[in-house]
Design goal:
It holds the Pfam family THF_DHG_CYH. It comes from Nitratireductor mangrovi. InterPro entries: Aminoacid_DH-like_N_sf, NAD(P)-bd_dom_sf, THF_DH/CycHdrlase, THF_DH/CycHdrlase_cat_dom, THF_DH/CycHdrlase_CS, THF_DH/CycHdrlase_NAD-bd_dom. By secondary structure, the protein is α/β, with parallel strands linked by helices. The protein folds into two domains: 85 residues, 3-Layer(aba) Sandwich (Rossmann fold), CATH 3.40.50.10860; 133 residues, Rossmann fold, CATH 3.40.50. The protein is 40% helix and 16% strand. Strands 1-11-8-7-5-6 form a six-stranded parallel beta sheet. A three-stranded parallel beta sheet has the order 3-2-4, with helices on both faces. The chain has a two-stranded antiparallel sheet with strand order 9-10. Helix 6 packs across helix 10. The structure holds the ligand Nc1nc2c(c(=O)[nH]1)N[C@@H](CN(C=O)c1ccc(C(=O)N[C@@H](CCC(=O)O)C(=O)O)cc1)CN2. The site of the ligand Nc1nc2c(c(=O)[nH]1)N[C@@H](CN(C=O)c1ccc(C(=O)N[C@@H](CCC(=O)O)C(=O)O)cc1)CN2 has 17 residues, from strand 4, helix 6 and helix 10.
Length: 299
Amino acid sequence: MAEKIDGRKVAEDVVAAAKTGADRLKAEKGVVPGIAVVIVGTDPASQVYVASKSKKAKECGFHSVQHELAADTSEAALLSLIGDLNADPAIHGILVQLPLPDHIDSGRVIQSIDPDKDVDGFHFINVGKLGTGETDTAFVPCTPAGSMILIERVRGRDLSGLTAVVVGRSNIVGKPMANLLLAANATVTIAHSRTPDLPGLCRTADILVAAVGRPQMVKGDWVKPGATVIDVGINRIAAPERGEGKTRLVGDVDYDAAAAVAGAVTPVPGGVGPMTIAMLMANTLVSACRRAGVEPPRF
Ligand SMILES: Nc1nc2c(c(=O)[nH]1)N[C@@H](CN(C=O)c1ccc(C(=O)N[C@@H](CCC(=O)O)C(=O)O)cc1)CN2
């Protein structure tokens, strides 16, 4: 039976390190890391994530501000708020919760964030730095960055000689994940819905990352014996066994089937999800350290 990779525990370690780093930065330079979290509208899942981010930031001793904007907020008003946050010296990290309402161009909003405060790592400057191996100065998107830490706990930092398959080609997870695996010397393939023989390709992977948004798509016989399986999916499905109208969260991997074959697997919930929020704290601390001219800790 595979090791269950405890993302909650690793996330606690990351948050504790961010708090220690913040305490040091304050003691040595008088600087308190500041984060602004912006949400537009009332999507219930987004509200939970944003509340969780603000709570963690406070736990880390950060200066934390939350901007809750109405669903009909204009793009111009949001861009104006971001302009103010870009200019605010007390703010080192700006996060605009996604998805945004349809009338707002997410791309335009993301590109308006100062790349030095782009703790989500979605700005072209940070995407380009990651793509060209400038990982020391890039902000790396939180979900892939957190997934890499989980992989490191199982496989170590150098993935030379290992094959990795990333299923999913999104800008937020699949592509940055592939770049990070490549930077760690893995031999990487990005697969997607049009890849022929997806199960066969996945079976070649020492490290298999599922980020497709399709509940339990990756079956046990897609997994190479002993592989490390990272499940990035968070899907809510009906759970009639829990009672009428009840739901439960599952990943993109059929956990029980994969765990019978793999060496290590992340669960959902409790795997990659908590790492996403922890890495936001790490990125915010790194941003504040850079601004203060202090060497940031390595997470
Ligand atoms: N600006 C951003 N927007 C979004 C991001 C992001 O990284 N930046 N990622 C996702 C949502 N997300 C954070 O924002 C996120 C998703 C899930 C979790 C998490 O801890 N999940 C738990 C389960 C939670 C539950 O019970 O519902 C888990 O997997 O254990 C944290 C953050 C989209 N938007």
